[in-house]
């Protein structure tokens, strides 16, 4: 099954601009971006019914992933709009913490999500959906540079050739997929779907290095067999905030469904421990590397043996099904062990499993073979995104898909690629980590991965990125104008608060005392008062006499829009920290701007330490900034490199 | 990552850090003049360097003000650190092509160190090894043909700094720094895992716990800082090596100087097979003494290694104490030792003066003149380590050499010590920021920002960077959901 198979051509030859392989969350965004930018695009999937499938958890967003969706939306992606239409519960996480870590998470109606995204694809001009397995990439040697290949097309299993200028691989977990449920092993993709067994060899044949990763999913229960009275009910937020900056918040306030919380116990753990020898992972049958951040229940019980119980979230899969997702208990144990273990959980005593939990292994790449534009370094016109790049998660996939799609288009148009750095977006962090670091497990976004997270908030993703989306051509003039207006209002209100003083008069002192705030010695600006921990924008409304009239003058209402006030308050309240972080960013940007020539021979740089030399040769960083993040490269090595680059620049 | 571009202002002692003549502390960078104004004061107290012309020199004092208002108060003269001449050179007409201030002060390790510390306290950052030269180069001041030379300077100075930092770090300091870092990263990982997975990991009640933890951490960092002030972080001092034939009384000499039985002293020649090391203060002068194995032609493999080491140490030493057994005649082993004395500061002890002398000063000088012509002036003292005679004269000889400027402190160690101190200070400040955020009831995600700064500051001391520590810590210590 794994030798290179050459499919005989059937004589059909189509000419398109872009081929997108795979119609999951990455593929959909990639294809939509290309088609919307006017390119004739075809998207391939092994099953049209599984477009934008959510084969694992039934939600979009979550800590740091919510940020990704908002950024995607700001750039002109689709995921945020679709989830806004299809969510059945929504929550802003971490509201008790700082604004930088607030993050949206919505439960999706899976079937509705798939259907809605499919409709968007179907109705998109320039976009063709094709159910076919792509088996081979077609390419030729470039005369531009040695060892550089150029993509010329793709060939399907039935022998049709699609000639194209760019191809985007978004194969998810389908490449040579293998599902494991204890001793039962099937060679299928997620959810029993057909695996793609040929493309890997074609890629290897082109010189692309492949690796194998693993992930897993818990069982789905028949909801009618669950006793919810033994669980804690989890509600959505009363006021739902949309993901998309283009969604009218009023249009999405609706009745929401609940999720349920229950726990494992000693009995559960006993069953798991007693059957570890039947777990494919512990028996050594699984060869792929799994993620540490979403461990199977077996892993949790083994690695955190001291924990007496683990949380289990029971989440609906949609409005029109009784199936419930059992969050926190993914597993690759055999069916009989699964049933026994699930039934020890309060509320699941009589549960019936609709779909078994399973682990899945698949082929993917080490994304260090890619430029930050997500184009292969060795193959011009070949891009990739999503789990194929070694990431995990719907949101991570969608963001890469969008960037790969945009950059495939930019390369066809001969324009500069969209490359965001770590100070601009979580997407920038995600891609930088993927293409420069040595990732040994499926990569998930985490808020701690973003160094400048105080600046990369979910609430200001539009301010950070809409302009880029507009320049690329995925954000309309109206949407962009709305942003400009918002920015203008923020600036004006900030200016007013910073320049309006209140004196130390009786009224003010009484007000401050009443709010447990220290009284004034001299006059203070309104901004200074907002900055006090015990006060805030809302709290000082009473002593801010011009607030209403100013708002009326600016926008004809007695209050500025909530999204404007949110920015004003955050910018004032956390100004000290924000300024500090902006200074760090300045420093960082200088390093990022120092580019390293692609053909730099590190053997010719004198005085680099051996370890640094090896690491630099291995990673081939594009900038000094990137070089400085490689472990094993010291500040002194960077100094040496800087001096060398300076003389190199002048000698060439 | 330390700053590699000249956004910030750096300072360092630009001359040799010695006790002779005049020293220069150089400040370079956009805030150089502003910072100099904070520490410099003319007699009238009125002149401001920001108003003076470029390339002018000004007479006044370096003053360590506790706060800025003090400059106007009566008692400012109590805060004087030194009387100085200050040269102001504005960009681009300076070595680094940045605004530069050079403080010409009286030489002396302590004075220069104090001036530098005062400058650092007011906002400059201690320059990295070779950093002035690097800036000069990157700003186009140095000819491109010199690039290789610049790289060599950076490389060798860094290697040296790193090595001396590693070698000189006291074992318990690096252990404590490691402990502190481990405890800090645990707290960060806990906060971060709760932020990433709020439904599985709760921060309820955590603030009080963290408050207590941070107090404990900052107390411990403060303790290290006070150790640094006493100069005990590093084995500072003049690198001194005792050489001599086996059983000449080297170990006895060390024991007398240290004041305890440290080396094994027996009558059997060749007992000290490796090296022993002690740090002592002699009349306020720090000595880092290494007692070596006796040097003689030997067949014993272990002893041979000891002899090779002794030669190596002697070669690197600032001061050699050559112990001669004056009761036996000079032989080939002595001649071998004498070749090590070339270009070195040497004190020769004619030991065992309690026994009948077989070696006279004049004999010895003759051999030395013959073997190492052009040697430095050599002090010779008759001692008996058995009766404790001649030891005072010996100690006075060392003192005199130091104050005449023939002996110098190991610069690199003083500087490294300062670097560590700066890192500890930064870690301490970051922990105080955490305390303030806690007091202000800031949200939890703000704590990890400053905890992280403390963590990486401490990392500078033991030469470890942050890298993927945090993500690994999160995954190993905390059970994430899904």
Mean pLDDT across residues of chain A: 94
Q: Strand pairing plus helix content of chain B: what structural class? A: alpha/beta
The name CATH uses for the topology of the largest domain in chain B is Rossmann fold
Number of E-type strands of chain B: 13
Helix count from the secondary structure assignment of chain B: 14
Spatial extent as radius of gyration of chain A: 27 Å
| CATH fold field value of the largest domain in chain A | FAD/NAD(P)-binding domain
CATH H-level name of the largest domain in chain A... which superfamily? FAD/NAD(P)-binding domain
Secondary-structure element string of chain B: EEHEEEEHEHHHHEHEEHEHEHEHHHH
| Average predicted confidence as pLDDT of chain B | 79
Task: Please report the first level of CATH classification, the CATH class of the largest domain in chain B.
Answer: Alpha Beta
Biggest interface found: A-B, 55 and 53 residues
Give a verbal description of the structure.
The complex is a heterodimer of chains A (652) and B (482). With 652 residues, chain A is an alpha+beta fold. A 6-stranded antiparallel sheet of chain A has the order 16-17-18-19-15-20, with no helix packed on it. Chain B is globular, with a radius of gyration of 27 Å. The model of chain B has no long low-confidence stretch (mean pLDDT 79). At the A-B interface, α17 and α20 of A face α3, α4, α5, α13 and α14 of B.
Could you list some keywords that capture this structure?
heterodimer, A: 652 residues, alpha+beta, FAD/NAD(P)-binding domain, Elongation Factor Tu (Ef-tu), domain 3, Arc Repressor Mutant, subunit A, 4 domains, 6-stranded antiparallel sheet, 5-stranded mixed sheet, 20 helices, 25 strands, 35% helix, 17% strand, B: 482 residues, alpha/beta, Gyrase A, domain 2, Four Helix Bundle (Hemerythrin (Met), subunit A), Rossmann fold, 3 domains, 7-stranded mixed sheet, 6-stranded mixed sheet, 13 strands, globular
């Amino acid at each position: 099954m794994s030798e290179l198979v050459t499919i005989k051509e059937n004589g059909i030859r189509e000419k398109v601009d872009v081929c997108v392989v795979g119609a999951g969350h990455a593929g959909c965004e990639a294809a939509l971006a290309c088609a919307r930018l006017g390119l004739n695009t075809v998207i391939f999937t092994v099953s049209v019914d599984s477009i934008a499938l959510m084969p694992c958890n039934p939600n979009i967003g979550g800590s740091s992933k919510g940020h990704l969706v908002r950024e995607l939306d700001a750039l002109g992606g689709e995921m945020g709009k679709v989830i806004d239409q299809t969510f059945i519960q929504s929550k802003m996480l971490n509201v008790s913490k700082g604004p930088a870590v607030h993050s949206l998470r919505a439960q999706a109606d899976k079937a509705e999500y798939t259907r809605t995204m499919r409709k968007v694809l179907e109705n998109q001009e320039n976009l063709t959906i094709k159910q076919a397995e792509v088996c081979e990439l077609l390419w030729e040697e470039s005369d531009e540079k040695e060892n550089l290949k150029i993509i010329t097309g793709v060939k399907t299993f039935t022998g049709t050739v699609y000639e194209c200028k760019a191809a985007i691989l978004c194969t998810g977990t389908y490449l040579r997929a293998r599902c494991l449920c204890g001793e039962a092993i099937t060679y299928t993709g997620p959810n029993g779907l057909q695996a793609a067994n040929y493309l890997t060899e074609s890629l290897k044949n082109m010189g692309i290095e492949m690796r194998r990763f693993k992930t897993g999913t818990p069982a789905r229960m028949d909801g009618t067999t669950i006793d919810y009275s033994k669980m804690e009910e989890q509600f959505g937020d009363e006021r739902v905030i949309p993901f998309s900056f283009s969604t009218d918040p009023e249009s999405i306030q609706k009745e929401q469904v609940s999720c349920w919380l229950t726990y494992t116990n000693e009995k559960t753990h006993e069953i798991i421990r007693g059957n570890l020898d039947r777990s494919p992972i512990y028996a050594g049958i699984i060869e792929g590397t799994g993620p540490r951040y979403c461990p199977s229940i077996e892993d949790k019980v083994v690695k955190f043996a001291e924990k007496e119980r683990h949380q289990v979230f029971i989440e609906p899969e949609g409005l029109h099904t009784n199936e419930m997702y059992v969050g926190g208990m993914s597993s690759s144990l055999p069916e009989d062990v699964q049933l026994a273990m699930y039934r020890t959980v309060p509320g699941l005593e009589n549960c019936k499993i609709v779909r078994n939990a399973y682990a899945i292994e698949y082929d993917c790449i080490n994304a260090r073979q890619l430029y930050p534009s997500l184009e292969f370094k060795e193959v011009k016109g070949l891009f990739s995104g999503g789990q194929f790049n070694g990431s995990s998660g719907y949101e991570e996939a969608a963001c890469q898909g969008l960037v790969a799609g945009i950059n495939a288009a930019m390369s066809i148009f001969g324009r500069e690629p969209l490359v965001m750095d770590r100070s601009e977006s979580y997407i920038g962090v995600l891609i930088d980590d993927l293409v420069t670091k040595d990732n040994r497990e499926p990569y998930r976004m985490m808020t701690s991965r973003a160094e400048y997270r105080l600046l990369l908030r979910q609430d200001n993703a539009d301010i950070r990125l809409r302009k880029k989306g507009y320049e690329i051509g995925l954000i309309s003039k109206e949407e962009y104008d709305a942003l400009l207006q918002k920015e203008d209002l923020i600036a004006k209100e900030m200016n007013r608060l910073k320049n309006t003083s209140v004196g130390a008069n009786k009224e003010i002192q009484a007000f401050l005392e009443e709010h447990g705030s220290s009284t004034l010695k001299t006059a203070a600006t309104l901004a200074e008062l907002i900055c006090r921990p015990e006060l805030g924008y809302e709290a000082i409304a009473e002593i801010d006499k011009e607030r209403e009239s100013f708002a009326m003058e600016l926008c004809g209402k007695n209050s500025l829009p909530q999204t404007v006030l949110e920015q004003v308050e955050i910018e004032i309240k956390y100004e000290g920290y924000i300024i500090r972080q902006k200074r760090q960013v300045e420093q960082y940007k200088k390093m990022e701007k120092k580019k390293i020539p692609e053909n730099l021979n590190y053997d010719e740089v004198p005085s680099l330490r051996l370890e640094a030399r090896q690491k630099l040769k291995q990673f081939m960083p594009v900038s000094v900034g990137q070089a400085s993040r490689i472990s094993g490269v010291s500040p002194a090595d960077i100094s040496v490199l800087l001096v060398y680059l300076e003389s190199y620049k002048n000698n060439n | 990552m330390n700053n590699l571009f000249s956004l910030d202002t750096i300072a360092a002692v630009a001359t040799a850090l010695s006790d002779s003549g005049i020293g220069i502390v150089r400040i370079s960078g956009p805030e150089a003049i502003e910072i100099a104004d904070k520490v410099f004061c003319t007699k009238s107290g009125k002149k401001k360097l920001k108003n003076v012309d470029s390339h002018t020199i000004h007479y006044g004092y370096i003053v360590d003000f506790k706060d800025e208002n003090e400059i106007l108060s009566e008692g400012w003269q109590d805060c004087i650190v030194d009387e100085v001449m200050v040269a102001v050179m504005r960009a681009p007409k300076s070595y680094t092509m940045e605004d530069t201030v050079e403080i010409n002060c009286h030489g002396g390790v302590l004075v220069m160190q104090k001036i530098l510390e005062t400058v650092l306290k007011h906002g400059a950052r201690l320059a990295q090894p070779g950093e002035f030269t690097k800036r000069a180069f990157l700003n186009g001041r140095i000819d491109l043909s010199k690039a290789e030379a610049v790289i060599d300077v950076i490389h060798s100075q860094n290697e040296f700094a790193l090595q001396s930092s590693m070698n000189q770090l006291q074992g318990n300091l690096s252990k404590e720094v490691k402990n502190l870092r481990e405890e800090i990263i645990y707290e960060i990982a806990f906060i971060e895992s709760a932020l990433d997975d709020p439904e599985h990991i709760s921060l309820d009640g955590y603030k009080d716990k963290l408050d207590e933890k941070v107090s404990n951490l900052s107390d411990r960092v403060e303790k290290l800082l006070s150790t640094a002030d006493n100069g005990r972080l590093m084995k500072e001092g003049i690198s001194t090596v005792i050489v001599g034939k086996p059983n000449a009384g080297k170990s006895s000499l060390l024991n007398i100087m240290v004041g305890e039985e440290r080396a094994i002293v027996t009558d059997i020649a060749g007992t000290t097979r490796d090296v022993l090391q002690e740090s002592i203060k002699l009349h306020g002068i720090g000595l880092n003494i290494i007692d070596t194995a006796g040097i003689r032609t030997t067949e014993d493999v272990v002893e041979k290694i000891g002899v090779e080491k002794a030669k190596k140490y002697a070669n690197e030493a600032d001061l050699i104490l050559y112990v001669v057994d004056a009761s036996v005649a000079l032989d080939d082993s002595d001649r071998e030792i004498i070749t090590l004395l070339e270009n070195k500061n040497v004190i020769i002890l004619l030991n065992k003066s309690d026994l009948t002398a077989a070696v006279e000063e004049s004999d010895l000088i003759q051999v030395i003149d013959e073997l190492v012509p052009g040697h430095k002036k050599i002090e010779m003292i008759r001692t008996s380590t058995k009766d404790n005679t001649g030891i005072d004269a010996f100690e006075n000889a060392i003192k005199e050499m130091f104050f005449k400027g023939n002996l110098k402190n190991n610069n690199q160690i003083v500087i490294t010590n300062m670097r560590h101190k700066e890192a500890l200070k930064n870690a301490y400040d970051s922990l105080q920021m955490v305390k303030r955020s806690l007091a202000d009831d800031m949200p939890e995600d703000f704590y990890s920002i400053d905890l992280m700064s403390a963590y990486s500051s401490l990392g500078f001391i033991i030469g470890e960077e942050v890298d993927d520590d945090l993500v690994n810590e999160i995954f190993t210590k905390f059970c994430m959901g899904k």
